[in-house]
Amino acid sequence: MRSILRPTSPLTVSLILALALSAGLAAAGEAKTPLGKWMKPNMGAPLAGQDFPTLKTSLDLVASKPPPGAGYPKWASMAQAGSAAAAKQDVAALKASCKQCHDAYKDQYIKEFPTRAFP
Ligand code: HEC
Fold it and tell me: CB of 46 closer than 6 A to ligand 1?
């Protein structure tokens, strides 16, 4: 990397900045679907604020509304595990449930249900 970065031209700097910015945005995650837009205030914000009753309500709702079809067999059980964790105020288990579902289904869901209404 060092040899590429030298000499530091204005173009190199702006290129690196642009790359860093787009990488940062991708990592933060943008909601692509109505579900994702609902997740932000109903999952992301209460997790940040450790609002366990709201998280439990949200996760129960998500568990009760799996996407249609056979492509999401673990959807409900993952959300139920999150709901149980919220009831116990177990932050580590809560985050594990978010991550499990996102790792398993986020890309698939965004591809298959870009406009599915939620809730
Ligand atoms: C049973 C599945 C499931 C569970 C559990 C779940 N999510 Fe999601 N979540 C999704 C799917 C699918 C998307 C993708 C939808 C989109 O991006 O439009 C998503 C998107 C999001 C988004 C918006 C996009 C992004 O990448 O930032 C946020 C914020 C979010 N979830 C937070 C949470 C949090 C916090 C938890 C746990 C407390 C959680 N989710 C639990 C399925 C789930």
Answer: no
For residue 109, the ligand 1 atom closest to its alpha carbon is 12
Q: Measuring CA to CA, how many Å separate 99 from each of 6, 12, 47, 96, 106? A: 39, 35, 13, 5, 10
Contact 115, 34 (CB under 8 A): yes
Centre of ligand 1 from the C-alpha of residue 93, in Å: 15
pLDDT tens-digit profile of 81-112? 999 999 999 999 999 999 999 999 999 999 99
Distances (CA, A) of 48 to 37, 55, 71, 105: 16, 10, 30, 22
| In the chain, domain spans | 1-30, 31-112
DSSP letter for 7, please. Answer: S
Q: Which residue has the tokens 């116990």?
A: 88
pTM above 0.70, yes or no: yes
Regions of the chain where pLDDT drops below 70: 1-28
In ligand 1, the atom with minimum distance to the C-alpha of 32 is 18
